[in-house]
Amino acid sequence: MYTQHFGLSDKPFNLIPDPDYLYFSSKHKIGLSLLEYGLMETAAGLTVITGEVGAGKTTLIRKLMRRIDYTALTVGIINNTSTFHEGLISWVVSAFNIPHEEKDNIALYREFQKFLIAEYAAGRRCVLIVDEAQNLSGKALEELRMLTNINADRDQLLQIVLVGQPELLDVLSKPEYAQIAQRVSVEYHLEPLDFEEVYGYIQHRLEVAGGADDIFTKQAVKAIYYFSGGVPRLVNTLCDYCLVHAYALGSVEVDFTLAMEVRKGRKVGGVNRQVKNVESVEQVRQDLIAETGIDLKALT
Known about the structure:
Layout: H1 26-40, E1 46-51, H2 57-67, E2 73-78, H3 88-95, H4 105-121, E3 125-130, H5 138-147, E4 151-152, E5 155-156, E6 158-164, H6 167-172, H7 178-181, E7 184-190, H8 195-208, H9 218-228, H10 232-249, H11 256-264, H12 278-292
Parallel strand pairs: 1-6, 1-7, 2-3, 3-6
Antiparallel strand pairs: 4-5
């Protein structure tokens, strides 16, 4: 709709996680490096990556999948833990394309153990990535712990990556899950972006989409940052609406006034929720009071 108007070859603020658009903030660089470290360390057990909804966890995983050496690693992914209606092991073997129909959990465990040993003998280690891991039940977590017991000498035959919302940390902190928590060798929490990172993030996505990086004024970005709290998915939502509004008005620039008009039209979608990086957001609020005389806090 607006791509031709702004000289874009693609929509830069699509909500679908796309590794081509991954902006390597310092936070995302560390997150990806730790994910890669967790995969390459043969003695590593569990890797845990957490972050708020929309922080970019799934995009990181998709970027990781592109960088994996599949001659050395065999990867299985479980994307939707909320659909579990049976033991976890059936989902695990399915993730690795192992036939599991009409087999009980004991038989599946043995089949999976044989699979891991065969892959290890062929020079490949297996990695299980579990997205939305905060939904895992206590029983499922215990099953994962049992799977980490399968090893050969000093090497883990199966490495597990748990990706989830902050509630996952709350679960793993409970005394009853101490045994699996002790298996966590790599842990990282993906924080929201600060203002300078949001500014760079918006410029980066515009450039990847083939456009100019100065479509959004700095004051407009400050407003977007304030109302999104630096969460990438919310930044995308607001920026996309800004481009639509600018196109409708025949403008080639998104300024502060336009960004504020867009914000007033957003009643749902998470905008204006309580933000985590309070100090950074407050500093931007004070900057905008000095620059525009408008107190954004009064509008939330």
